[in-house]
């Protein structure tokens, strides 16, 4: 789940450790920056040694640095070490002991490749006795370790799940951020509470909460003709952001981002959105389990095929998970992975009428009832 403080928490912890334990080498890498996952080798080597090499050469040098009398990294060339290469993992070129290194790999899932050798190497190197290396991977992808296979799972020492912020937490963080900027008095208390409630209900993404507050402030300034003009403290008090400003900002954000994302969905994505909306209505709950959605999707796909749309097939379990990840990134769904032995739970982040409006022009419109309160009509 994005916006739950994963990266910020790690950076804060690293800073505290450097203050308490003394300096160590810290490397921050974002996997989303690379067109080719193998380029992460070049980036990591450059950060550690100030040397720039092509990925294959960088892999060899990194494997030599982190390994001593060990087999080569996966996906790398297998060759015998020549005289003088022994001991390069724990010693630098001048014979000094290598410093401890902490590597943060944000957006780890972007480094996926057919044989998953990149992610495997990154997580395998810390297991080498001479590596002096700790790798922290961050990902928004639902149950990523299970999807990578047992070989990579065996290299994961600790796994921490960050749950979405609840209303109280969102409100507390927003108040703290506003106080830091010395603009806390610009918002009415109820307006901040409303912003926190809306974000917690949809996603718990603190970045969205801050964006919502910023948009609400812009709306209030525009309505008072204060944009780009100097104003004194009394006018600022008169221009305090209200609950109505937050509500309008929330509608505007949905209209400009999430609704557009809904309109751009594929048929398979649209089927999942309709299935979640219908299941939530039928069950009378805020969220629904993934297995219920898969049953409903199969029924929807069968109905489309019966109507002559032979090209539509129900997506597989793996495809459904990938689609849900994309919909979560777009702000349409929120995924709560409840544990290794329980099905993920899905939450719709947009109102029913917005779903109906955005998807009414496609082949899935038959699964959108005219009466929004009757989402269970097409249950199969």
UniProtKB/TrEMBL annotation:
- What subcellular locations does the record give? Nucleus
GO terms, molecular function: ATP binding; ATP hydrolysis activity; DNA replication origin binding
Query: Where would you find the membrane-spanning parts of this chain?
Result: none
Q: Which InterPro entries match?
A: ATPase_AAA_core, Cdc6_ORC1-like_ATPase_lid, ORC1/CDC6, P-loop_NTPase
**Primary localization:** nucleus
> Could you say which protein family the record assigns here?
Belongs to the ORC1 family.
Q: What name goes with this protein?
A: Origin recognition complex subunit 1
